[in-house]
Amino acid sequence: MKTNIEKINDTRRKIVVSFDSSEVAKEKEGVVAEFVQYAKIPGFRAGKAPKDMVLKRFSGDIKAQLERVVTNKAVEALNGIKEFDLFAVVDLQNNDIESSEGAALTFTADIYPEVKLPEDYKTEVELSPVEATEDEIQKTVDFYRNQRAQYNKIEDRAAQKGDFVQVSYEGKIDGKSIDELVEKPAMYGKQKGTWEEAGNTDVPGVRSIIEGVVGMKVGEKKNVEEIFAADFPEAALAGKTAVYELELNEIREKKLPEIDEAFLKDMGDKTEADFRARLAKDITAEKTQHNEVLKRQYAVDKLMEGVDFPLPESALEEERQSVLQEMMMRFMSSGATKEDLEKNKESLFENATKEAEPRAKMRIFLNRVAVANSLKVDNEDMQRMLWQESVRTRTRPEELIKQLKKDQARINRMRSDALLQKAINFIAEKAEVKIVEKK
């Protein structure tokens, strides 16, 4: 068996693995012997049929098995090449494999690039303090009070800022309904009985309506103008002035609960001090967990600063497809249709390409760190990846295992992800943390 390597570019090679006729004949002899041993031919017990009869009856199967055996031998040779690390085989061509003529298999393969790794993996990362501040505690208290707020119906006064109002409206531009101008007008077109928080312009909505309902009484009608910005995302509305006809249907005043015995009991605490102390503990735990994520991210980013290397084409394509799949899942979960996907496919592909390159680069870098430091994936790592994949895809573990048995590429991806996580852990363990107060 001979191997000839031709450089196509920094990360791609053409590799020809050739077998002479005697090597192919030897492999064929082994394949034929196996068929003779197990072949079932009427009139003969297993292993007793004449060799010539087996060759004639199973010629097609023998040829296919010979091709598989020789190809596997060639792949073994490919993986055994010392001068580079194989990333992926992107193409395989082979001539007719015959014992009389030998065989030549031509692989087009991507290889890992040369990556200059740091001599020292120590980094310094700056993180924020994890102790809960009084402002954070108070915001969490307000969150729970808002969850339990009552909304009392008001009939004897006009709407005030902070009230929740039910309003009906229709927007028109030059007398024409926005519903006729925009394919999916949503909140910018016609609404019947929608709820708005009066005066709160920090939430999505038509600003002139949210501000305009302040001072209105139930049953009152009025017109307001909305001037859409020149760069407004909806082209039909960009730079236009719309007139909205409003009618206020209902006013409700939000009343927050007192932090009394009933409230504290509902929260599972005896005193307000206990309640705040528990919130502080939860906030600190959440910030600690967030800091751990940031530490891992910042440490890897610091090590990669100034490191440059060419990306294998298949690495970029693999990552692009992964990003594209994630984008499509998010797009569909937001209510988009297949028609929407088709309409936006060019934009999705462009964005996926932009996101894929740094991700592919990081994967290559982390893989080289793992290899250089002899990091290995064990059963515990794969079990953890199985659990993570189960949670991510919302699939029961036993069902996921069935899927994986039919999808070797997915298993390989999970194994690769497990190795990269070990590399990240390795880098994070060597990071020195500096706590810095926010300015």
TrEMBL record:
It catalyses: [protein]-peptidylproline (omega=180) = [protein]-peptidylproline (omega=0). Belongs to the FKBP-type PPIase family. Tig subfamily. SUPFAM superfamilies: FKBP-like (SSF54534), Triger factor/SurA peptide-binding domain-like (SSF109998), Trigger factor ribosome-binding domain (SSF102735). Residues 273-429 form the Trigger factor C-terminal domain. It comes from the Bacteria. Consists of 3 domains; the N-terminus binds the ribosome, the middle domain has PPIase activity, while the C-terminus has intrinsic chaperone activity on its own. Keywords: Cell cycle, Cell division, Chaperone, Cytoplasm, Isomerase, Rotamase. It is found in: Cytoplasm. Residues 156-248 form the PPIase FKBP-type domain. One of its GO terms (molecular function) is peptidyl-prolyl cis-trans isomerase activity. Signal peptide: none annotated. Involved in protein export. Acts as a chaperone by maintaining the newly synthesized protein in an open conformation. Functions as a peptidyl-prolyl cis-trans isomerase. It is an enzyme of class 5 (isomerase). Its EC number is 5.2.1.8. The gene is tig. Residues 1-142 form the Trigger factor ribosome-binding bacterial domain. It holds the Pfam family Trigger_N. Its main location: cytoplasm. InterPro entries: PPIase_dom_sf, PPIase_FKBP_dom, Trig_fac, Trigger_fac_C, Trigger_fac_C_sf, Trigger_fac_ribosome-bd_bac, Trigger_fac_ribosome-bd_sf, Trigger_fact/SurA_dom_sf. This is Trigger factor.
